[in-house]
Structures
1.
Amino acid sequence: MTSTSHTPRRPSAAAGRVDQAQMRAANMALILRHLRAHGGRSRARLAAETGLSKATMSSLISDLAERGLVREGQLHRAGTVGRPGLTVELDGRRVCGLGIEINVDYVALAAVDLSGTVIRESSTPVDVPRLPVDAVLDRVATLVNRMLDSIREAGLIVAGLTVSPPGVIDYAAGSVRFAPNLGWRNVPIVAELADRIGPDVPPIHLENDAKLGAVAEYAAWAPEGVSDLLYLSGDVGVGAGIIAEGRLIRGWSGFSGEVGHLPLDPEGRQCGCGRTGCWETIVGLSALLRLAAPEDDEVQDPTRPLEDRLHTLHTRADAGDERTLAALRQITDDLARGLSVLVDVLNPEVIVLGGYFAFFGDYLLEPLGAALAERRMDEGSGARLVVSRLGISSTARGGAIVALEDVFDNPTLIDTH
Amino acid sequence: MTSTSHTPRRPSAAAGRVDQAQMRAANMALILRHLRAHGGRSRARLAAETGLSKATMSSLISDLAERGLVREGQLHRAGTVGRPGLTVELDGRRVCGLGIEINVDYVALAAVDLSGTVIRESSTPVDVPRLPVDAVLDRVATLVNRMLDSIREAGLIVAGLTVSPPGVIDYAAGSVRFAPNLGWRNVPIVAELADRIGPDVPPIHLENDAKLGAVAEYAAWAPEGVSDLLYLSGDVGVGAGIIAEGRLIRGWSGFSGEVGHLPLDPEGRQCGCGRTGCWETIVGLSALLRLAAPEDDEVQDPTRPLEDRLHTLHTRADAGDERTLAALRQITDDLARGLSVLVDVLNPEVIVLGGYFAFFGDYLLEPLGAALAERRMDEGSGARLVVSRLGISSTARGGAIVALEDVFDNPTLIDTH
């Protein structure tokens, strides 16, 4: 079974009559999400906090344990009085999600288990623009199957896959509508990958890289109490992932965060999307390379790995190379302009810079922070600016987390042992 | 008791140990919100849909009914089989919220009951910029007390007030930090109004006009299945209220939607906020008046009621006056640029134009829609553009709805009869 839908997140309780099994599943989901949000706790406390009776709680916990989704662990003492009890906690040993990022020059995979632990990660150079679509999909399927085998051999169930393709997603059709940097058009990627992965393919979702980056970063920031976060991906394309009050804001048709195409270039350069003056034409990776070096410079050579080229540029900046430094200053100014728009619209508490922005964080963060502070409307409206610490894996990790959502919505998707 | 806080929306169940009374209150809140979202239904269905036992449900419904928050009404038949049962529904007869908008030249009030019905509305011309702050607050308190008296005489409890002041809110302090169009600075409006309204003052919240406009518009659109909506207020200032997946997005410190100050004017005019090039300097009401008529024209006379001046302009446009039409075309172009930014960032399904934009909807909607369609990234990402049908009362109505949120979060705030 494959699926591209993200919609049926909420149990359909409200829609009509609910039978006993649906009600049970919805309450199991409630327990699972409560444990994820607040950590392990006793049955008694879970019952009190969720409003379910102790008898119901007991039965649901047994059911969840039989499915391998929770376990009873350490003794704990609730407060200062009463006898110590067993803590119920998420069990990461049985179920995981898999995220797959197809980027311009690599394919990254990550598997995250139910308790949020990253259990597998890989990144493989793939020269996507120079390969036929079929060859790319073959390669991706091979990588996925290799990881699926390794995870399944270790005894885990893969609840779902989330693929992040490098282009505009048609969520309803499960396809990539177009990918300007790759020349892809109307690639039915879900069906094609499902065919190649074979009969045991888990449900496949599609989601864009910036949204998945935001999900992965949010997983790291939520424990610190942050609930409004903006993630900015920095590649040839630039996109934003928006977390508001702890939830990913997808927009009504999944097109939120298309900030790379904000009209912010007064010179109105042509963009791959068909518009002119798009923000990514002045702050995307191509803009940095163009500003920092002549066309025949080694950093512009697409056959060299991107990381090496960025390293070269960083070394030049460290050595005081004026053209590189001027390029970074220009990028900073243009980044500040767009970030200031996003701050005005969204008022995030934390802005996480990803992609190549993170790589040049030591040059960008301070002047960007100063520029944003200067434009701040009110002392209470400033955002904290940081760089991603997840690096290249953030999209794939976010994909793995999103792939687990189905289980958090309906734990009965996972059969008992 | 007064309060400016909007934070404790969610029952604090998760924070620690929860006693019986808190759990009961949380479950009563669950029932109340369920009835609001999905309409009246039988006890049996409510029990099935919320996961609460029938015995618990019965006890909670009785409790809610004693507080006058729900009632059992019409017979209904669930599906085609089984005996008909009584429908439990929200009871609007006992509790309402009150919204108060202090604008530049009027004060509007609206009361909305628990079932969503508008039970009182008023709008009073007040020349706010020419009056001392104290005199304005006296006037507002008099208007509020008059409405409070009338509502209480009718036997209703006013659960809370939401005030929308015409300036930047300091949520924590309950004050208006500054209101450039009025010359107000650091006005502790919650405390001042509470003093004036007297000992029976309900809790007072503060919220900005665009956010409240969005809440009011959303109440009208939600029944049609819309969950992602953007409301654009159009006055001297311009602001956005964002509803995403059915929830008001406030930003981490309440400063989301400050779109009037997006840097969208290439000529960089000075704005009241201290920045230059702000969007509202080219699409706000002052821009329309400046573009449409010379300084000594009657439409620029601040002593004439705004509605009359807008009527004059509209009549000129209808008569084919070239300057007025050119002004509207210019506003359309500049509005399209900013709306396109908001569409790229937020991907709303519906954009509701409020304030003077709504007044000129017959001139703005069609060309704006065409301009947005032209910039659309993807056929699936377009937004539906409409004008507000709530008119001047949308902010006050939204305030009344927000003032009721405390009851939906904790129904035990309302005592039994």
2.
Amino acid sequence: MGKLTHFEDGRPRMVDVSDKAATLRVATAEATVLLTPEAVEALQEGGVGKGDPLGVAQLAGIMAAKKTGELIPLCHPLPITGVEVRLWFEPQEARVRVVATVKTKAETGVEMEALTACAVAALTVYDMLKAVSKGLEITGLRLLHKSGGRSGEWRRE
Amino acid sequence: MGKLTHFEDGRPRMVDVSDKAATLRVATAEATVLLTPEAVEALQEGGVGKGDPLGVAQLAGIMAAKKTGELIPLCHPLPITGVEVRLWFEPQEARVRVVATVKTKAETGVEMEALTACAVAALTVYDMLKAVSKGLEITGLRLLHKSGGRSGEWRRE
Amino acid sequence: MGKLTHFEDGRPRMVDVSDKAATLRVATAEATVLLTPEAVEALQEGGVGKGDPLGVAQLAGIMAAKKTGELIPLCHPLPITGVEVRLWFEPQEARVRVVATVKTKAETGVEMEALTACAVAALTVYDMLKAVSKGLEITGLRLLHKSGGRSGEWRRE
Amino acid sequence: MGKLTHFEDGRPRMVDVSDKAATLRVATAEATVLLTPEAVEALQEGGVGKGDPLGVAQLAGIMAAKKTGELIPLCHPLPITGVEVRLWFEPQEARVRVVATVKTKAETGVEMEALTACAVAALTVYDMLKAVSKGLEITGLRLLHKSGGRSGEWRRE
Amino acid sequence: MGKLTHFEDGRPRMVDVSDKAATLRVATAEATVLLTPEAVEALQEGGVGKGDPLGVAQLAGIMAAKKTGELIPLCHPLPITGVEVRLWFEPQEARVRVVATVKTKAETGVEMEALTACAVAALTVYDMLKAVSKGLEITGLRLLHKSGGRSGEWRRE
Amino acid sequence: MGKLTHFEDGRPRMVDVSDKAATLRVATAEATVLLTPEAVEALQEGGVGKGDPLGVAQLAGIMAAKKTGELIPLCHPLPITGVEVRLWFEPQEARVRVVATVKTKAETGVEMEALTACAVAALTVYDMLKAVSKGLEITGLRLLHKSGGRSGEWRRE
């Protein structure tokens, strides 16, 4: 099964990283929630003061990063050393943007942790707006940057 | 905070659904993983026989539907009565499509469960291909259809 | 072991509630975090605007209510139908108060869910202030009110 | 937001501890369950022989220490290297005392793990006695001692 | 895939039980831990007084029953209404026996919950004895009896 | 309580391993599912092509290894660095064999992780076949080999 390291002889496995060194790894990912006009309006009304919806989504993203190893079957459980999740409501573009950065000192990287944080933060935005409009869509969930490890630095162009 | 039912006086809450009837609810969602040429090639080599990557992603999606209440802060824990997740590798379009349908008999719907199943299945595809190519992107994560409950049937047009 | 229904012949068990009817159950609990002067000051500086510490603690409390069955060994897993958690910072009394109300339609009550929500919300307040002052203390974690079920209504006097 | 390290520009985050050294950290916390006369009597009848309620609570506390990172939103997941939880039933004072000590070799401390172990052990005592008396109260949940890390040793006076 | 209801067109799924009635379901399972002479001796020394190893295993089994839906990919999450786990140390036969009974009112049965409770209780016995002897073996993990549901009663002969 | 290191003064504890060195640890375990003739037949019909039942069980075993610390009360949470689970359907012998190998770099070994992976993989085989035949039995769940740590290498003879 050639290039798929998660497979050996056609069987999935959690890749053995015992021989790798535990070094600093950082990954940043992003996602976008496309809003309907009703959702934009609801967020504009509701987005002032404490307890706003983006705050709930941000916390959901941070907590989800810690659950990545439970969700993604072949991911290693990693000792995360830092998580930042940010959300921006851009009413002009009718969207919410999410960016998450995760750090660890481990034998393998945290790309999946950053992507999972973005996915769950975006889903939480969806959850809070779904009574207003079911037509929302999550798009552009992807890696922006990673550093550390044998494959070195990578940046989306 | 007007139309955001998850909020009362600016504070998030798990909406009280005690007065609603437990009825059949169904929701279907979808997502798409956009592949790079290297990822298409790797999947073509690895996608034959048992243990293929889409099988891993499918199971990850089913299991994630059961974790929705843990991931999305204001979601109710629901007694899911059925989950189907399907993935299609479309090499011509350089993509993997995911569709998930979730059912329950409960006081509230399973839109978030169907969306979460799609998101985690798509992330699992990403995970298995990330050693080949980091440039994948998850897009079009959205609700296709729901039925049951006070708001009745909804279908994306 | 007389009055301890969780035990039979000296062995703990999850009490069989199969014969009980699933009816509406409500429980309200409270807790208090006693603050030091440094903690009061830090909360006063930090407690304005979105993302304030009490918002984090509130969400932690809501999510913890859903984890009660995992944490308390002999608790039944319950289909929670509503959760509200509120926190008040009372600088004059140098304390934060927490009150949580949980609802379900089930064969047994949600006292432990309300208490667990308060405990985790209070612990989260502690966590966010521990860099400022380790001398905080959580006190008065107790049930305020419950209704529903064979034992009927109970209210702390 | 001045002294609240869990916040940056008003947004909560999991503080980046990548630059810190992984060293031995120890924390000890305590809690007290205040009993009613009926609860004292029930524990006296039930507290002999194996399977007694305090044994259940002790195990619940040990297992809860491992769940701290899931419960407290901004806590780091830590590789716990040891947990001890002890409970004393003091019928004269009509109370149960809980003391928990947690150890790790990590970049940050285990105060929250020790406090969470005490909280869940105390809640478990409450759970097993609530059929006898709902008037119990958990009090004095606080840190007793910590060592290790940049802030060094701290002991409650 | 003929008789395997968990599969449709070669793909696993969580079988749709929405059309079934929620009725009382009971299942009882058993397992046996075969001991070495060193393990028998250690249990005989350690098995007196509170906190004995079988008490830890019993509680682990009860808690594991609640985690079945997380562990077994295609299992439905079920509202368990009662769990009993018993362990007997039989030094003459050099073994520990485990029997677990689980109840629910649901659309599908609790065989897997009873089996999972036995498996985890037996593994916990192993864990506590493994410093004494690694040669233990878990055997005879199987269903003894089930009742309720369309397939009615079943008893191992 | 003599030789039971999990106990001190009759109370269970998570043994303090802070003083041990984090070194490479490997453990391999096995289990066998004894099949009935109906189960052999169902597996023969269903076992061809992708998505076969053993693939589901294999993934369940890998994911369960990561949950060991949650299931076994006194187990340390470990940073697993590799997991392999293999299943063989042996129709002639009317059985399915499971073998799991787990690796870590930690202060304590991964015997329980390998055993838990085998147990959950075997239970998943049971789950998928239970509609066909309830008479299956899991047997021979035991350690085959371990290396690393103070007690060195051990191999079942």
